Amino acid sequence: MESFLCDFPKHISEGYRRGKASATKPLARPPKGILFCGIGGSGISGRILAHVLRPSLSLPFHTISSPPLPSWVDENTLCIASTYSGNTEETLALTREARERKALLLLLSQGGTLEREKHEEDVFVPLPGGLQPRFALGYMVGGLLGAFEELFPGLSFARDLEETGKYLEEIIPTYASPAGSPYRIARDIAGTIPVFVGIEHSTDFAAWRFKTQCNENAKHVAFASILPEAMHNEIVGFAHPETLPLSFVFLHDPEEPKFCTTMARAYLRHVAKRDCKTSEVWAQGTTPVCRALSLVAFGDWLSMHLARIHAEDPGRIPAITHFKRFFRKLECTFDGGEKR
């Protein structure tokens, strides 16, 4: 599995090429809003795309993981459907309902039902097979950036991706090493319940990625928390139980509001007084794409080191496999947002 993380920069570049090649014609009409539909490892790319586009895109951008489809989706909405397998029930249901409402569709998959049901007017970005969804993130993010560059001529990510590729190629050997910071933090949190603290509109997507990668790769319980919301409730919740072994990893972006940096530091001091282990991770780079994906790479390697510390196979996800088999036996599906 480490080879997938080592090839992350190549995945981004190849995904970008595939996205640009797939979006060969402009949208039939300019959208008035964008909705990303995806869940699990196929869904995190939407959170990252929304973060990257926030400074430059004037359209509202929302993400959703399961039905029902929001009532405002119509023929003037661009709906992005991302399911690596092409068979994710939640995403298929959302896509079918979006098609019924005549929404514009941008699809990402390595095949499956999503590809079989695509229409000629849809933009379809093909992903390579043989991966688990969470290890295909580079292809998905790159594919979305490439497609958006073609669909929205005012956007350009060439500089972002050039910086991202160079930075990741240089830093990944350090991230992969026991001498690197990802290993150090993994070692520190191995006997604890880590809480990854992000800042809304800055590193919230990264907190979720860190959490889910620790869950799946390391089989380790972990949680994500978002500031400033946590300062209005969560901060008072550490009195009971007294012996809960928590640790906190605060995720920062150099462009985050100074107010939020000060708030995060205050939160760090608060939990440190309760003898919780604390760490800080800062995004690197000058462009939004580089800063976002530098955090993703850090978290992915942290989870990989944590898996090795626990002697866990990062590729195995037995609980998820069991859950999917159980639901297939019950023939549970979504139909227009309702389970039948």
TrEMBL record:
Residues 23-157 form the SIS domain. Belongs to the PGI/PMI family. GO terms for molecular function: carbohydrate derivative binding; glucose-6-phosphate isomerase activity; mannose-6-phosphate isomerase activity. Keywords: Isomerase. This is SIS domain-containing protein. The keyword S-adenosyl-L-methionine does not apply. InterPro entries: Glu6P/Mann6P_isomerase_C, SIS_dom, SIS_dom_sf. Transmembrane segments: none annotated. GO terms for biological process: carbohydrate derivative metabolic process; carbohydrate metabolic process. SUPFAM superfamilies: SIS domain. It comes from Candidatus Caldatribacterium saccharofermentans. It comes from the Bacteria.
